[in-house]
């Protein structure tokens, strides 16, 4: 059985005290959702220590939104994978579309970040996905395949066992266009096919999350699809009630 995962990417939102309250809200309501669902919260770097404290004693995991390409040194403003691991993070989001789009992250960058994550015992949530122009040009399969082949194909079999993939239809975020559950299943199945070509049967165990405007109203429909194993949640993760309701999408 593949893991069912609902991960909250808080992005650059909340102040530390607000983040603590949000985390406490998730912990307080966690018991209302099937224990088969794995919850992860990914606050800003500034919140990690405080949120880790708020999560103590619960099974809600902590993740970071990024890590540096280097282990340590004269890299002002960067946060090493070892630092976030030391604060209790189990996961790290890598290759998010916003990092690719706004900060020029390439496959070369991400290969270095993946290596740092694994060297420090972190599980990467590796993001792939196409933008609107690429989708409309029918290039979405090619784009996603390249993003996987250029990074994930470089992993060892052992590393690959500790990997989560998140598919983000960038074209469906803030554009007024919506990805249907069928479109989500189509691309998730394709991603699993690309992973199978390299890693064989192990690809059947890889959790592939949907990251495009998933909310309480559509979670059950999307999660019902065979190759959708959960969600990487943005805006809806900023309210504990909504975040938990998305998790309940698995039990409907």
UniProtKB/TrEMBL annotation:
Q: Which CDD domains match?
A: TIM
Its annotated pathway reads: Carbohydrate biosynthesis; gluconeogenesis; Carbohydrate degradation; glycolysis; D-glyceraldehyde 3-phosphate from glycerone phosphate: step 1/1
Locations listed in the record = Cytoplasm
Does the record bear Signal in its keywords? no
Mind listing the GO biological process terms from this record? gluconeogenesis; glyceraldehyde-3-phosphate biosynthetic process; glycerol catabolic process; glycolytic process
- What residues does substrate bind to? 9-11, 174, 213, 234-235
Q: Which reaction does it catalyse?
A: D-glyceraldehyde 3-phosphate = dihydroxyacetone phosphate
Domain of life of the source: Bacteria
Q: Name one GO cellular component term.
A: cytosol
GO MF terms here are:
triose-phosphate isomerase activity
Q: What is its EC number?
A: 5.3.1.1
- Family, per entry: Belongs to the triosephosphate isomerase family.
Please name the PANTHER family in this protein's record: TRIOSEPHOSPHATE ISOMERASE (PTHR21139)
Q: How does it assemble?
A: Homodimer.
Name the chain's protein.
Answer: Triosephosphate isomerase
